[in-house]
TrEMBL record:
The lineage of its organism: Bacteria, Pseudomonadati, Pseudomonadota, Betaproteobacteria, Burkholderiales. Gene3D superfamilies: NADP-dependent oxidoreductase domain. PANTHER family: 2,5-DIKETO-D-GLUCONIC ACID REDUCTASE (PTHR43827), NADP-DEPENDENT OXIDOREDUCTASE DOMAIN-CONTAINING PROTEIN (PTHR43827:SF3). Its EC number is 1.1.1.346. Residues 6-251 form the NADP-dependent oxidoreductase domain. Signal peptide: none annotated. It is an enzyme of class 1 (oxidoreductase). This is 2,5-diketo-D-gluconic acid reductase B. Belongs to the aldo/keto reductase family. GO terms for molecular function: oxidoreductase activity. InterPro entries: AKR (IPR020471), Aldo/ket_reductase_CS (IPR018170), NAD(P)_OxRdtase_dom_sf (IPR036812), NADP_OxRdtase_dom (IPR023210). Keywords: NADP, Oxidoreductase. It comes from Cupriavidus respiraculi. The gene is dkgB.
Length: 266
């Protein structure tokens, strides 16, 4: 399973705004779109994709199962509903969005239900998001590491999440970095501004290039054509070892996605 390194995030984007972002993204060359049941925008994402004329088999579409749908009786029906909204027979990747709040359900139960969704052809691949090391160990025990196509976690210069990213990769599992721009905060950082200026690019491109050079997939979001375009061009930025080290020093454990049902982080 090849996950395109640069995807388009859609969190917070609703109605016409998400239609415009996905339409423009597809025009510019994005071929990987990241949505989720809880974003409330799967129908609009599906419409934008259908209207774009881009062939389904050249696209990589991810959705995520919301916490309320983790039960064995709910997971597959909820994914079928997502597919109907997205106007697709199959998504490329389905993630468990968060471990069950308070671990009210065992990891093995929802990972097995997700594997069953794959066996039924509803999704080409399966994966996880916001799993701690302990959750990931249980997921591996349930379905095997080879079945887990990616773990999607928050990573940006201010939350580098090294322990979790390193453990995930030590199991042979690919990592996708979400909120790769720290929701725009990277633009204000003096060190990222300095590196950006030296390369004639923006701090956003520096943050994305830093993630790409470590082998992570990235899914930045934007409502602006110019930002969508420049984020895609981050793949052309070549940071030096010194740049990479300077950015590594910016880690300050600043977590942005931390809802009250989040697990106990590593
Ligand atoms: N699995 C999970 O639990 C989880 C959690 C959070 C997010 N995600 C996924 O990750 C995606 C990305 O995270 P995110 O959308 O929260 O944050 P993000 O991509 O880090 O940042 C988006 C923000 O940065 C701004 N921006 C984008 N490109 C820019 C550029 N080139 N220059 C300056 N500003 C720029 C955007 O504003 P403009 O619109 O003005 O460009 C927007 O305010 C989400 O959309 C979602 O798909 C997953």
């Amino acid at each position: 399973m090849h996950i395109p390194a640069i995807g388009l995030g859609t969190f917070r984007l609703k109605d016409q705004q998400v239609i415009d972002s996905v339409t423009t993204g597809l025009e510019l060359g994005y071929r990987h779109i990241d949505t989720a049941q809880i974003y409330g925008n799967e129908a609009e994402v599906g419409k934008a994709i259908a209207d774009s004329g881009v062939a389904r088999d050249s696209l990589f579409v991810t959705t995520k199962i919301w916490t309320e749908n983790l039960g064995r009786d709910k997971l597959i029906p909820s994914l079928k509903e997502s597919l109907s909204k997205l106007r697709m027979d199959q998504v490329d990747l389905t993630l468990i969005h968060w471990p069950a709040p308070g671990d009210a359900l065992p990891v093995s139960a929802y990972m097995e239900a997700l594997a069953e969704a794959k066996a039924q052809g509803l999704t080409r691949a399966i994966g996880v998001s916001n799993f701690t090391i302990a959750h990931l160990r249980q997921a591996i025990d349930a379905v095997g590491a080879a079945e887990i196509a990616t773990q999607q976690i928050e990573i940006h210069p201010f939350l580098q999440n090294r322990k979790l990213a390193d453990f995930t990769r030590s199991q042979g599992i690919h990592v996708t970095a979400y909120m790769p721009l720290a929701y725009g905060k990277v633009m204000q950082d003096a060190e990222l501004q300095r590196i950006a200026q030296a390369h004639g690019v923006s701090p956003a491109q520096v943050s994305l290039a830093w993630l790409l050079q470590q082998g992570f997939a990235i899914i930045p979001s934007s409502t602006k054509r110019s930002n969508l375009e420049s984020n895609l061009r981050a793949a052309d930025v070549a940071l030096s070892d010194a740049d990479m080290q300077a950015i590594a020093a910016l880690d300050r454990n600043e977590r942005l996605a931390n809802p009250d049902f989040a697990p106990r982080w590593d």
